[in-house]
Structure to design on (536 residues):
């Protein structure tokens, strides 16, 4: 009897102990998440809105490469884009550019009335497309399961977070989540990127899908669509990037909508109409005003009978806000910057890029990706699906067409979150388990953490400027080294490309020196590459 009672008592105590263990583990996870956030550093100033002062590295001609492969209407996902037309950023990071001016989204939510709020949303939306690269570049295609997490800190102490994941391979779909709990802002989006060649010499990247933007304090939901990006002048003339297509921002509760059209400048005499956008503010079928301007500078609204136009957006009054990101050495193995770091570093090895090396790294990513079971086929069908790590399928209602559009939303239930919880995007992106293996290393503390933060630097994706400056300094350094001198210093004899390579990885090195944990890279057998089809 006593033994039975003891057994019963032990059985009853075990769940309590397990619950305590779970509570302790949860508290430790929260502490680790906050520590990770404290170790984040801002992107350097010279990278904001595009890398400034960079020069285009030499590369082969693209004309014959494209002529051999492209026919009008062809799907570019089956066409190899030359590596010198790739940007050393993943598409998941490119989509984060919509938050280059996050204060404009906060201002939109704080608008005095429904019209002010939807015009504020339009201003924020238009401000997210002006990122510039040296030459025309396209981001790398994210691999399935790739993630990106970042945040911005505002003057009022609140934080806006951005979390993204590549949730689907065929078709390629990127899911994104933006949240600011203090201001009651939440956005969920899914973009299916479809590319094609359009005669005579244009490559188009068509952004299909939609976004649900919610202002919880006002009970408003905005449905948003996306434009098409065009690379013009592929074979002759000046190669340039422009946006085109019709988009809309519509709110079912208020009946208001902003309709916008992005225009491509004509080939001859179109300098004044570059980056032109036109549109209208409407309530139902009633037009309340005309919208016109340049989406990379200033956009105005003219109401019927109004004495003067109203400013919708004026980018000269705003600066690009830096993203807060984990140093490269602390990121998880499936995060965008760390995953692509070897290839991006090779692309930034100025002044002379080894394009064959870049191609080999890119091909290895693709070859690894082919081994994923969810990419294999049996009689034309996928033999294994892929379970997204952070998002789940959903729909958003388009009040203009009265249809439900498929999107992806943050899987709050699986992640243990509610609508009122702040999302620690950097921790979720880094720590969420991936079935392919590869685990992030331990989080440094004390002096190791201080050393890591103090050595914060531009990641491998944005070291081109430093490399270019080193390259320009190399001839003078070589001349100085040639003069009689007691002993030339390392600064005068180090080759510029080596200096650039070293500049691209100080966080990793510092972490190793200070005992900070490195993320465990996936093994050679663990797939980590992009799809068999090459970058579109």
């Amino acid at each position: 009897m006593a033994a039975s009672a003891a057994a019963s008592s032990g059985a009853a105590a075990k769940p309590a102990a397990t619950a305590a263990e779970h509570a302790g583990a949860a508290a430790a996870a929260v502490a680790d998440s906050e520590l990770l956030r404290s170790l984040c550093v801002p992107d350097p100033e010279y990278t904001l809105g595009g890398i400034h002062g960079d020069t285009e590295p030499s590369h082969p001609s693209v004309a014959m490469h494209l002529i051999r492969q492209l026919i009008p209407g062809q799907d570019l996902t089956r066409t190899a884009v030359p590596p010198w037309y790739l940007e050393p950023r993943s598409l998941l990071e490119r989509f984060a550019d919509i938050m280059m001016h996050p204060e404009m989204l906060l201002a939109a939510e704080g608008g005095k009335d429904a019209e002010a709020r939807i015009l504020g949303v339009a201003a924020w939306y238009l401000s997210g497309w002006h990122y510039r690269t040296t030459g025309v570049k396209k981001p790398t295609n994210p691999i399935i399961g790739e993630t990106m997490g970042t945040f911005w800190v505002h003057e009022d102490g609140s934080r806006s977070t951005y979390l993204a994941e590549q949730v689907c391979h065929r078709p390629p779909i990127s899911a994104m989540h933006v949240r600011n709990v203090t201001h009651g802002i939440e956005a969920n989006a899914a973009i299916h990127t479809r590319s094609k060649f359009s005669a005579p010499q244009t490559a188009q990247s068509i952004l299909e899908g939609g976004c649900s933007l919610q202002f919880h304090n006002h009970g408003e939901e905005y449905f948003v669509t996306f434009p098409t990006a065009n690379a013009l002048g592929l074979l002759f003339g000046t190669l340039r990037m422009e946006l085109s297509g019709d988009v809309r921002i519509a709110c079912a509760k208020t009946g208001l909508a902003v309709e916008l059209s992005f225009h491509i400048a004509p080939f001859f005499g179109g300098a004044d109409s570059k980056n032109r956008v036109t549109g209208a503010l409407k309530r139902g079928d009633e037009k309340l005003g005309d919208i016109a301007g340049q989406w990379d500078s200033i956009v105005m609204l003219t109401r019927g009978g109004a004495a003067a136009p109203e400013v919708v957006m004026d980018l000269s009054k705003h600066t690009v806000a830096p993203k807060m990101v984990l140093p490269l050495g602390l990121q998880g193995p499936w995060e965008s910057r760390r995953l692509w770091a070897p290839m991006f570093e090779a692309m930034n090895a100025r002044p002379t890029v080894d394009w064959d090396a870049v191609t080999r790294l890119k091909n290895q990513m693709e070859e690894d990706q082919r081994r994923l079971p969810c990419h294999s086929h049996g009689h034309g069908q996928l033999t294994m699906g892929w379970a997204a790590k952070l998002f789940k399928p959903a729909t958003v209602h388009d009040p203009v067409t009265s249809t439900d559009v498929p999107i992806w939303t943050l899987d709050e239930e699986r992640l243990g979150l509610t609508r009122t919880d702040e999302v620690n995007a950097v921790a979720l992106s880094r720590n969420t388990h991936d079935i392919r293996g590869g685990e992030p290393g331990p989080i440094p503390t004390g002096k190791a953490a201080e050393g890591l933060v103090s050595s914060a630097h531009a990641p491998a994706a944005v070291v081109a400027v430093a490399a270019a400056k080193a390259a320009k300094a190399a001839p003078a350094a070589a001349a100085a080294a040639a003069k009689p001198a007691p002993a030339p210093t390392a600064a005068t004899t180090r080759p510029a490309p080596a200096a650039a390579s070293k500049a691209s990885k100080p966080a990793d090195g510092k972490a190793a020196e200070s005992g900070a944990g490195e993320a465990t890279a996936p093994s050679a057998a663990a797939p980590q590459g992009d799809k068999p089809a090459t970058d579109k």
